[in-house]
Fold this sequence. Notes:
This is PiggyBac transposable element-derived protein 4-like. Residues 1-185 form the PiggyBac transposable element-derived protein domain. By secondary structure, the chain is of the alpha+beta class. The chain has one domain (2-186). Helices cover 20% and strands 33% of the residues. The strands form 4 sheets. Strands 6-7-10-9-8 form a 5-stranded mixed beta sheet, with helices on both faces. Strands 1-3-2 form a 3-stranded antiparallel beta sheet, with no helix packed on it. A hairpin with a 3-residue loop joins strand 9 (126-132) and strand 10. The longest helix is centred in the last third of the chain and has 10 residues, at 177-186. The chain is globular and about 50 Å long.
Amino acid sequence: MVGFTxxxxxxxxxxxxxxxxxxxxxxxxxxxxxxLLNFHVYIGKDEAASAHGQxxxxxxxxxxxxxxxxxxxxxxxxxxxxxLALDLLRKDTYCCGAIRPNRKGWPYPKSKQRKxxxxxxxxxxxxxxxxxxxxxxxxxxxxxxxxxxxxSRRTKAGPVNVEIPQPVHDYNSGMFGVDLNDQHxxx
Length: 187
């Protein structure tokens, strides 16, 4: 969101954002450097929208030049769906993203779990993972296997090794490309 408060026909308001009023820009950035690969200014509802939803349409249009090259695309829960993961996989492109538990086709409803408990289902190369840390995390991935990864965390008592599902680790490692681009742009 680029802050803008004057009159503009496609100005957006998103409650709870640090900059609630402005121009919404969809961005695709490289995850390690934050280099901006593609962007699109959102000017309102698209007349030629597909039946799969806005998140699906945005991702497919942004990654179009990179399809078929076995890249891994990371996205947050606004964009992700099992249908998007399957269509990207059909086009030789992998993905990893947080997903809302009420998405059509998601195998895990929101439920009570103990801290550290993980559930994983796999269908072909699509891995659905539900893991509870401080809160419940749902991740859909086609880029990793459903094993556990060991990561080091800092606590008041010092560093502690914690096991987390590999798809959650991959998502945490690769999801910050757009945030990193925003950080570079603010300098």
